[in-house]
Amino acid sequence: MNFSKEILVWYAQNKRDLPWRNTTNPYNIWLSEIMLQQTRVAQGTPYYLSFVENFPTVHDLANANEEQILKLWQGLGYYSRARNLHTTAKIIANQYKGKFPNSYKELLKLKGIGDYTASAIASISFNIPEPVVDGNVYRVLSRFFGIDIPINSTEGINYFKTLAHEVMDSANIRDYNQGIMEFGAIQCSPRNPDCEKCPLSSACVALKNNQVNDLPVKIKKTTVKKRYFNYLVIKDREDKIILEQRLGKGIWQNMYQFPLIESDKDFKLKDTEVQKKLEKFSNDAISFEMYLYNSEKIIHKLSHQHLFTSFWIIDFNGKLNDGIEVSEIVKYPVPVLIADFIKTFNF
Fold it and tell me: Domain HhH-GPD, which positions (predicted)?
C-alpha cells in the first residue's frame, strides 16, 4: 500500500471547506495554525474570521494594541499565543518588511512558532517539503505503523518526525500535510474511529493487533494544582466597579479581573481582608456590605491547575478611585471565567 497516495486520494474526496484553505498567504496560514493549537476547528474558526476582519494584514496586527488583541482572543484560552502573535507580527512588519521568511529554519526563529507551525507554513505557503507532526499526525502514524513509543517523550518526538519525513509525498506536500491532519481529525479520530470504512485498514497494524484504542501512547501529565480564588466584585455608591490588570508571569497575563484574594487552601474570607483591599481603592471611610454570589465554588479547569472560585459582591458605601462604569466592562479583555460571571450577574 502506498500510504501517502491513499492520504491524498482520501483528502481530495473528504476535505472540509475551511476559510484558511482558500489561500496560501503565510499570514493567514500562520493565524489559523496558531489559533488551532489546543483548539477545535469549530471553536477556532469564528476567532480566525474575526482576526482577519479586524487585522487584514500582518501590519494591521503589528500596529494593534495588546488589549484589543486580547479582547478578540477572549475565550480561546492559552493567551500566551495571542501575545506571541503580536510580538511576531511586529518582527515581521519591522524586520522582514511585512514578508514572512520562506524557509523552515527562519520561521522557526520567530516567537511562538515551533516545529509544527514552521513546517505547516513552509509547506502550505511555500510548498517546501517539510512534514507536519501534530496530534492528528501522531495518531495516524502510531496506529498505522503500530508504534507504542510515547509521543510526548524526546525519543517519540524524534522518531515520529523521522518517520513523517520518510512517508510524506514531497511532490504534493501542500495537500499531503493538510490531508494527513484532516485524516486524523475526521477518519482516524481519537475515539470510535470508523475503521471499517478506512482506506488504510488493510495495512493498519493497530487494527490488526486490536490496539486502536491503545495508540498513541502518551506519558501522563504532572499532578494538577489546586488554587482557591476569591474575586471581590466591588460596587461603590455611584455604581462603579474595580478591574485590575494581571501583571507578571502566569495565567491570563495582562488580562483584567476583579480584585483577587488567592490561596492554595480553602478558607473563609474575612471582613478584615476585604477592608484591606478596599483601602487600596478609596480614600473614603471603609463601610461595606458583602455576600457570596455562588453558594458552590465554580471549578475552572486549566491544563495543569484547577481554580476553585468564589465571587463576593461588595457594596461599598464610599467612592472608588479609578472606578469603571459598569457599561464599560465589556470593553476589557477578561478570562472566560470572569466573562461568564459578567454575563450572568445583573449589575
Answer: 35-186
